[in-house]
Design brief:
With 97 residues, the chain is mainly α. Helices cover 77% and strands 0% of the residues. The chain is elongated.
Length: 97
């Protein structure tokens, strides 16, 4: 898929995935940034898109999966942070005793 085909068939879908991204992420990340990340991901994989039977569906599934990956990373980061804080509190408590 060349740039003209991408601009014609994929890029206009950015406006259509924006509301879904906003709902899924619920303020966790900026939807504008996520749309840009998704469009870049699609651009990098554009050679695989040319003959795809359902481009709209593929773009929406890609967007959904990208959002779910972001949520997983955030949850993991929070869990790691909570563990570090817990460990530090335990160490401080052990030094006090």
């Amino acid at each position: 898929m060349n740039e003209k085909e991408f601009n014609h068939s994929i890029l206009p879908l950015a406006e259509r995935i924006y509301p879904m991204i906003t709902r899924i992420l619920n303020g966790l990340e900026k939807p504008e940034d996520m749309v840009q990340d998704i469009m870049l991901k699609l651009w990098k994989g554009r050679d695989n898109l040319k003959n795809h039977p359902n481009l709209v569906g593929f773009v929406f599934i890609t967007a959904k999966n990208h959002c779910l990956d972001v949520i997983k990373r955030k949850k993991l980061s929070i869990q790691v942070y909570d563990q570090v804080v817990h460990d530090q509190a335990q160490n401080e408590q052990n030094h006090v005793e």
